[in-house]
Each structure stands twice: as structure tokens, then as C-alpha cells.
Amino acid sequence: MKIGIIGAGHIGGNLTRRLTALGHDVSVANSRGPETLHALVEETGATAVPVSEAARGAEIVVVTIPLKKAPDLPAGVLDGAADGFTLIETLNYYPQQRDGRIAAIEDEGLTESRWTERQLGHPVVKVFNGTYAQDILDKPRPAGAADRVALPIAGDDEAAKKAVRSLLDELGFDTVDAGGLDESWRQQPGTPVYGLAAGTDAVVAALAAASPTRPPEFRG
Ligand SMILES: NC(=O)c1ccc[n+]([C@@H]2O[C@H](COP(=O)([O-])OP(=O)(O)OC[C@H]3O[C@@H](n4cnc5c(N)ncnc54)[C@H](OP(=O)(O)O)[C@@H]3O)[C@@H](O)[C@H]2O)c1
């Protein structure tokens, strides 16, 4: 598959590593330009591109940048993606450490993914937001393995979620459908499932135990 990755840091870098290893055709971009991604290109065989070209022809696009940077992406950044492409986002809102206060999230009560979707202008599927970057490399297991980790996914577009579940299976993870985007607070920072590396039953229980009240450490 042709996959575009916007963000080449901890998560974007490790997704580039795994997806190229699986034989996918990966284009990857950061904010500073393709010439700064030489080492990742050498290591993985991915193609480094300007951010405006990352989505070109892609069946799956992954946006994995600091949440506060989402509005900085160039207009039309997703133009040229394949018809019916799936958009994954991994973003978390860290108001105190990184992102500053965002009123639409804290006062209007938009989920972090709904806010992100509005910045990107295309339906998103939320996944990997509670997964340590290193776990993308260390935790993959074959289907059926007793210690296979399950990751929650949320989104409103069932076809896109199906595509993501299939990709996650290929990457070595089970998935748990956590519902639509307005339910995605169940997997935001500070919830029981956030950072959990466990199987399906534990993830289902953790999602059910989540509270919609934003913890104080994740308020700006
Ligand atoms: N680290 C984790 O374990 C983890 C786990 C789950 C979810 N997350 C979430 O996933 C997102 C990415 O996390 P990360 O740890 O991978 O971040 P990171 O290591 O700080 O990397 C961020 C990447 O985004 C790029 N970027 C920033 N602004 C951009 C722009 N306007 N256009 C294109 N690229 C841009 C950066 O490029 P430059 O370096 O060129 O600026 C960098 O490659 C965050 O929202 C984070 O909260 C992280």
C-alpha cells in the first residue's frame, strides 16, 4: 500500500520502520524538510518528501505531530491522496507541557480527535495515541498469540476503521472498537487505557472504566 506519514518523530519514525519492513511504500515528512530525514531514509528505504507531498497517492495517511501544530499544516495538505483514503491521527492534548490551552477542547468539550478532525478537514481514525512509541517496535505479535496487545480505535467512518483494523493486524496488534469520535475521550491522556499494553479483555474493561471528566493534569 502507499502510505503517507506526516511527522517523523518517535511515532512517525517507528511507523515508518515497521511499515517499510512490511513492504509498504512509505512517504514521510517533517516540518524541516526531506533533507533532514536522510538517516531514516537510509535505514528504512522510505521516501522523504515535503509535507505538502506526503499524502500524494496515499491510501492511508498518518498525521503524528504535536497537537498544537495541526493548524500549521499547509492548506490542502491532504489533496492528492487516493480516492477514499483513510486518515489516521495519533495526537494527544498536553496543555501544560506542550500545547497551551485550547478553548474548543476544554470549554466546548470537543474530543481531542474531533478538534483535530476540524483542523485537518477529513474524517479521522484515532489510534496509537496511548501507545508508547517503542511499543510499536517491541510489542507486535502474530495473530492469536497469548500476549498480543490490543489497541483502541475510534472513528465515525466504518470503512476507514475497517482499513485501520486490517493495518493494525498486519502490524501485529489486535484492535478494540472504542466507538465514534465523540466517545474517543475514553482513550485520551489520563484514562485507564492510556499507556496500557494489554490484551482485548483488559482494553475493553479499561475503556468501560473511563471517566469523561478531564483530569486536572490535562487541563490548561
Ligand atoms: N511519543 C510517544 O510515545 C507518543 C505516543 C502516543 C501518541 N503520541 C502523540 O503523537 C504525536 C506525535 O508524537 P511524537 O512523540 O512522535 O512527536 P515528536 O517525536 O515530537 O515528533 C513530532 C514530529 O512532527 C513533526 N512536525 C511538527 N510540526 C509539523 C508540521 N507543521 N508539519 C510537518 N511535520 C511537523 C516534527 O518535525 P520536525 O522535527 O521537523 O519539527 C517531528 O517529526 C503527538 O501528538 C503525541 O502526543 C506520542
UniProtKB/TrEMBL annotation:
InterPro entries from the UniProt entry: NAD(P)-bd_dom_sf (IPR036291), P5C_Rdtase_cat_N (IPR028939), STEAP_metalloreductase (IPR051267)
Keywords noted in UniProt: Oxidoreductase
Record domain Pyrroline-5-carboxylate reductase catalytic N-terminal: where: 2-93
Tagged with keyword Transcription: no
Keyword Oxidoreductase: yes
Pfam families, A to Z: F420_oxidored
Family annotation (PANTHER family): DUDULIN-RELATED
Protein name (Swiss-Prot/TrEMBL): NADPH-dependent F420 reductase
